[in-house]
Amino acid sequence: MNTPTMLNFGAGAILLSGLTGDNWRLADYRARGGYKALEKILENPNHWTPDQIIAEVKLSSLRGRGGAGFPTGMKWSFMPRHAPEKYLVCNADESEPGTFKDRDLLRYNPHLVLEGMIIAAYAMGCARGYIYIHGEIWECYERMEEVLKEAREAGLIGKNILGSPFSFEVFNHHGFGAYICGEETAMLESLEGKKGQPRYKPPFPANVGLYGKPTTINNVETLANVPYIILNGGQRFLELGQPNAGGTKIFSISGDVKRPGNYELPMGTPFTVLLNLAGGVREGHMLKAVIPGGSSSPVVPASTMLDTKLDYDSIAKAGSMMGSGAVIVIDNSRCMVKSLLRLSEFYHEESCGQCTPCREGTGWMVKILHRLEHGEGREGDLETLDQVAHNIMGRTICALGDAAAMPVRSFLKHFRDEFDFHIKNRRCQVQDYV
Amino acid sequence: MMKSLLSDQSLRLIETAIAKYPEGRKQSAVMAALTIAQDEHGYLSTDVLNEVARILEMSPMAVYEVASFYSMYRLKPAGRYTLTLCTNLPCALQGAGSAAQYLKSKLNIDFGETTKDGMFTLQQGECMGACGDGPIVLVNHKKMCAKMTREAVDAFIDDLYGSAGKDKR
Lengths: 434, 169
Ligand SMILES: Cc1cc2nc3c(=O)[nH]c(=O)nc-3n(C[C@H](O)[C@H](O)[C@H](O)COP(=O)(O)O)c2cc1C
Ligand code: FES
Known about the structure:
The structure holds 2 protein chains of 2 kinds. By secondary structure, chain A is α/β, with parallel strands linked by helices. Chain A is built from 19 helices and 12 strands. Chain A has helices spanning about 25-30, 35-45, 50-60, 70-75, 100-110, 110-125, 140-155, 185-190, 220-225, 225-230, 235-240, 270-275, 300-305, 310-315, 335-350, 355-375, 380-390, 400-415, 415-425; strands spanning about 5-10, 85-90, 130-135, 170-175, 215-220, 250-255, 260-265, 270, 285-290, 300, 310, 325-330. Chain A is globular, with a radius of gyration of 22 Å. The model of chain A has no long low-confidence stretch (mean pLDDT about 95). Chain B contains 6 helices and 4 strands, in the order ααααβαβββα. The mean pLDDT of chain B is about 95. The longest helix of chain B has 19 residues, at about 90-105. The two termini of chain B are about 30 Å apart. Chains A and B meet through strand 4, strand 6, strand 12 and helix 15 of A and helix 2, helix 4, helix 5 and strand 4 of B. The structure holds flavin mononucleotide and FE2/S2 (inorganic) cluster.
């Protein structure tokens, strides 16, 4: 399966630790202590009640790794206790530009994700789960089919798991080219065999989810953290990270660095440490800007980013978001107008078309940026651009609208001079285009 | 009974997909069924879409909606190999622009076009969740090829020509 991306992890790694790229099978996972957390629970169900598991996850301060950072324990506690039919969905639709961590978890440590899922299902009383896998990573889908087969044969999923009264069925479902299906309610529509158009919230999926039944959606990396929490305790996990955000984080670093890849580091690691691990910016260039949390997060100028630690609060203080932990590095040879145009084209292409501000607004933004990029910018364009972005925000069913607007507003805020230069001089300030 | 437009093997695969969902939720298998049908026919003609609708007991309109919503379903015939190059920002920073130029000149076509011999259709795509390995080319929406430098593109095109020679349809 393809050239392996470099797997990079330090002493504190809990998700990527021990992986070679080849040791993904059940026997390998068992050999490194896999499924011990599940066994621990099923062997002592009087201690490990669903409430106890949820309490442990709450204590760990694990926050959702899919982008919104919602506390996982709290999310699980929203699931109604006694509903007869409940679902768990693992969100593996990773397609936020810059994010490629879930792919490595799925192909190199798939049973870890599955064990996390089984424990989550036990804690919430879900009898069925789906893993929704981004269509473009078809090889991961095929691997996961193999993984579920291994697990089923070993009695780890299906009826009476490991001889206990607990039963849980899991299946893979693949996407086929729609970023929006990463949004949890669009994902539910897609699982039901429809277009992936987000639903209004409320009702929230915990009450009305897949097939109208209570459903929890969690990101791949979120679930992969669960076995560690059960084995070592929520407190230990918490101490790996920051007071309100426990654990490690896989940072996907891409763009103008020498060694793009996934790096698992403790929450709160300084950005400079990550940048150095990735080999620094390309030879002869200087850091200009960083998009620290996937393409939807606001861009941060180099000077600020170099002083920022990688955790929710620090990145928020720097004016952006932790998001999915995808760090896109841009050096001084790049044109910010052209960079933003490409991101805006993406949101326009991927808007599902339901909400007018998003459908039309993303189109207008592309049009204006296209004009600016091609030396046809007009007086007042920048004000219009900012206004359009402003008018999308908060006016759409799902967060794709905000995701499209935030890059625009932040690029304009921090790199206004480059945009002005395009209008005045009808050309680009930097030589080397993206 | 009329013969299905889909092979027995495709029909079996669709049955396996249906079995993943609860009783009475056949529609959930529509994405899988369309993918299986596309793999067999190369693209999804109206007749094939109607056949999927029949199998899943869906209205044809509901199937068309799904087929046109997701970008990797093809509603028109294309080259034998559809090459989708990710041109999103992270890949662009890592050289997708030059990979695009090189692919276009090597195949002598632009994005959205098919080579005269019907072998390749070239198109640009969005983030494939593999940016660290960029530039990325996806072959027929399934096989991902990483780090597409000039040399890698050369080797890869030769390879596809080679395997096409071996199993001519
Ligand atoms: C446009 C859009 C795209 C999203 N894409 C993803 C994605 O690819 N993967 C993911 O886990 N969450 C994605 N999310 C977030 C999900 O809606 C959801 O919050 C997340 O899966 C919850 O899991 P967590 O609590 O474990 O983070 C996306 C949200 C939006 C608005
Ligand atoms: S940007 Fe090309 S795979 Fe993500």
